[in-house]
Structures are given as structure tokens and as C-alpha cells.
Design goal:
By secondary structure, the chain is an alpha/beta fold. It folds into 2 domains: 12-165, 3-Layer(aba) Sandwich (Rossmann fold); 171-357, Dehydroquinate synthase-like, alpha domain. It has 13 helices and 8 strands. The strands form 2 sheets. Strands 1-8-5-4-2-3 form a 6-stranded parallel sheet, sandwiched between helices. Strand 6 (132-138) and strand 7 form a beta hairpin. Helix 8 (247-259) packs across helix 12. The longest helix has 23 residues, at 196-218. It binds nicotinamide-adenine-dinucleotide. Nicotinamide-adenine-dinucleotide is lined by residues 40, 42-43, 67-68, 93-97, 99, 122-123, 125-127, 130, 132-134, 165-166, 168-169, 177, 240, 263-264.
Length: 362
């Protein structure tokens, strides 16, 4: 066994079918009594159900969570939370809603006091398991600028994984969100801080999501598929929270933050190409990914998993403009960060060009 360092994060995880019925007990366990339920506009009905379970422990619902955590939305929700004297958020939804709950924890923190967080994830993005928050604010030219920070203040106190609430995630979003999760695990396998704990979770996560995607595509209510996918989301999200990410996440952050590309879809399109880019310099990690997926070639296996299950596989179909490829490559190659393969602008541009056209990796 090679020497390693591993920082375990505190987390209470409750996983199963129908677990959201336990939200009231969890809130009381945290010593809280004034909850604000958070959702996106699309999931307000799911939020109302949680509010009903909480009964008089819920003081309100805020249903305007928005992708990339814009600061103006956070300010509006924070004002609401203060007005209602909220001590806990219950975020019901994907990374966008969980991001808002994290932002409320961060901006309300005063010494040890802060708004606590119970999260009920309904996608596979994995934000619930990380001490990371990305926030978007307009820069001085009025352009959105996304900044990310890592602080334990935003790590949710409780994760309630209720598989029932994932049954409504449309099949196409299931595939892209699942591949978003797999991306965390793939980069954890080649991370500088890779260690036996995260690597083992990464393999379990890739295996679970890899086998769940075809099952859910065929039958969105597949019990095995849905429970494996949500377990995989936790395993992969835990990897994201524990070790540093590399070229793949940097590219997706650039495409999302500077070009407004959709989060999970962009991860889906870029991942096979990022794996192909790093493959010669991360042979063991990439062979591990292939084994976990049950394929000979990891990059091709990931490409086929998306394409064969109806997900997008080119930046072009996501609306990216060909003339922006060069600028995206520039941004991604600029600030240095650890990555198995050297970061060379010409090669990154080729990677992005292949992703733009949706070329199957060789
Ligand atoms: P999302 O939360 O924006 O959800 C996408 C859409 O799907 C929303 O309209 C949502 O209401 C809907 N939806 C979610 N679950 C559903 C369900 N079960 N049934 C029906 N509709 C459902 O998308 P996402 O990909 O989960 O999250 C993306 C955001 O999360 C991005 O802003 C990203 O930066 C952030 N993120 C952060 C971290 C972190 O560690 N900080 C990790 C991953 C993602």
C-alpha cells in the first residue's frame, strides 16, 4: 500500500425508499424548529409535500432556486430566511437547489451559528456530499462570473436520499446527470490526492451508475436502476468532496461559467474526450474505469453510454458556437492545475473540437 492522506468529511447519510418521511425527525435531531423549504420553480410541488410532512416545523417555502447560484437569488432567499427567523433549510432538488441551501448557510454564518442544511437530492450531481460552493455574480462589464470556494460551512448536516423522489427525473436527464456523477469518480481515480478510500468509492460509483443507466433508459421506474443510480451519486459525490478535480472539471467549469453551457449535459459531452486526452498518462486509472464499466476502452465506453441512451454527445447540439472553441481552450489552458497529461493549448483545442463535432474517441 502506498502512503496516502485522507480527510474524512462529517456527514449523516440516510438512504432508502420513502426516507423523506423522516425529515421531521432529522430536523428535530439537529435541534431545529423553523425550516425553510427550497426548490426550483419546477419542483415546488415536491417541496410542498415536504413542507406538509414538516407541519408546524416549516415556516415557509422558497421556490426560485436557479442554476449556478446567482447572488441576487441568494440575497432574496436570505432576506426571506431572516424575516422568517429560519434555523434550517430543507433543499429538495438537484445541484441548483442544494447550491442555494449551501449559499444560505455560508451567508448566514456568524461564528459557529448558521442556517443548517438538510438536503434531499433528486439528481445525481453530487453537490450534497461536498464542501464546495460555486456562486455567480456579474463582473464589472455585466458578464456572469462564477467563483468557487471550499469551506466546511456549506457541507450539509444531513443527506436524506429518498429514491422515490428520483423516479420523476426524465430519462435523458438521468443519463446526463449520471455521467456528471461518473466524471467525479473518473477524476478522483487520477487525482493527485487519490487514496484507497476514494478510489474504492469511485469504482463502486462508476459500476453502480454504469449498470443503472441502461436499466432506467428502458424503464424509468426500474427499482434496481434507480437505487443503484442514487447510491452511485453518493459514492461519486463523496469523491468530488474529498479530492481535487482536473482537466475535465476545469473544462466544464469554463464552458458553464463563461459560456452558459448546461451543467450535466456539458459533463456528458466532455468526459469521453477528457478521458482520451489523459489516457496515455493515467493508464491504471483509465483501465480501472474501463473495468468498472465492463468495456475495453473507457473513453469509447463513456461515449457509447451517452449516445446509446439518448443523451447529447456533441457541444454543437448543445448550442455551443464553433468560433468560441479557441477562447475556451485559452481559458482552460491558462491557470495551471494538476492533471495527468500536460496541459497544452493546441491539444486542448483538439479535444474541444472533437467534443464540438461529437467524434467518437479513438
Ligand atoms: P438542477 O439542480 O439545475 O436540476 C435541473 C432541472 O431538473 C431543474 O429544473 C430541477 O428542478 C429538475 N429536477 C431535478 N430533479 C428532478 C426530479 N427528480 N424530477 C423532475 N425534475 C427534477 O441540475 P443539477 O445538474 O442537479 O445541478 C446543477 C448545478 O449544481 C450547477 O449549478 C452546478 O454547478 C451545481 N453543482 C455543484 C456541485 C458542488 O459540489 N458545489 C456539484 C455538482 C453540481
Amino acid at each position: 500500500m502506498k502512503p496516502f492522506t485522507y480527510n474524512a468529511l462529517p456527514a449523516r447519510v440516510v438512504f432508502g425508499w420513502g426516507t423523506s418521511a423522516q425529515v421531521k425527525d432529522e430536523l428535530q435531531r439537529l435541534g431545529c424548529s423553523r425550516a425553510l423549504v427550497l426548490t426550483t420553480p419546477q419542483q415546488s410541488e415536491a417541496g410542498e409535500k415536504i413542507k406538509a410532512i414538516l407541519g408546524d416545523l416549516a415556516v415557509g417555502i422558497y421556490s426560485n432556486a436557479t442554476m449556478h447560484t446567482p447572488i441576487n437569488v441568494t440575497q432574496e432567499a436570505l432576506a426571506r430566511a431572516k424575516e422568517l427567523n429560519v434555523d434550517c433549510c430543507v433543499s429538495v432538488g438537484g445541484g441548483s437547489t442544494i447550491g442555494l441551501g449551501k449559499a444560505l448557510a455560508l451567508h448566514s454564518a456568524d461564528g459557529d451559528a448558521k442556517i443548517k442544511n438538510i438536503v434531499i437530492p433528486t439528481t445525481y450531481a453530487g453537490s450534497e456530499a461536498t464542501p464546495i460552493i460555486g456562486q455567480t455574480e456579474n463582473d464589472k462589464d455585466g458578464k456572469p462570473l462564477k467563483t468557487t470556494q471550499k469551506t466546511l460551512k456549506v457541507l450539509p448536516e444531513v443527506i436524506l436520499y429518498d429514491i422515490d423522489l428520483t423516479l420523476s427525473l426524465p430519462p435523458k436527464m438521468t443519463v446526463t446527470s449520471g455521467l456528471n456523477a461518473i466524471a467525479h469518480a473518473v477524476e478522483a481515480l487520477w487525482a493527485v490526492e487519490a487514496n484507497p478510500i476514494t478510489s474504492s468509492l469511485a469504482v463502486q460509483g462508476i459500476e453502480a451508475i454504469g449498470r443503472s443507466i441502461p436499466l432506467i433508459s428502458k424503464d424509468p421506474s426500474s427499482r434496481d436502476g434507480r437505487s443503484d443510480a442514487l447510491f452511485g451519486a453518493w459514492a461519486c459525490g463523496t469523491c468530488l468532496g474529498a479530492v481535487g478535480m482536473a482537466l475535465h472539471h476545469k473544462l466544464c467549469h469554463t464552458l458553464g461559467g463563461s459560456f452558459g453551457m448546461p451543467h450535466a449535459e456539458t459533463h456528458t459531452v466532455i468526459l469521453p474526450h477528457a478521458v482520451a486526452y489523459n489516457a496515455p498518462f493515467a493508464e491504471v486509472a483509465v483501465a480501472t474505469v474501463a473495468r468498472a464499466l465492463g468495456v475495453d476502452n473507457a473513453a469509447q465506453g463513456l461515449f457509447d453510454l451517452a449516445k446509446d441512451n439518448g443523451a447529447p454527445y456533441s457541444l454543437k447540439e448543445l448550442g455551443f458556437k464553433e468560433e468560441d472553441l479557441e477562447r475556451a481552450a485559452d481559458i482552460a489552458a491558462k491557470a495551471p492545475y494538476p492533471n495527468p497529461a500536460p496541459l497544452e493549448k493546441a491539444k486542448i483545442l483538439q479535444l474541444l473540437t472533437n467534443a464540438f463535432h461529437g467524434t467518437r474517441p479513438e
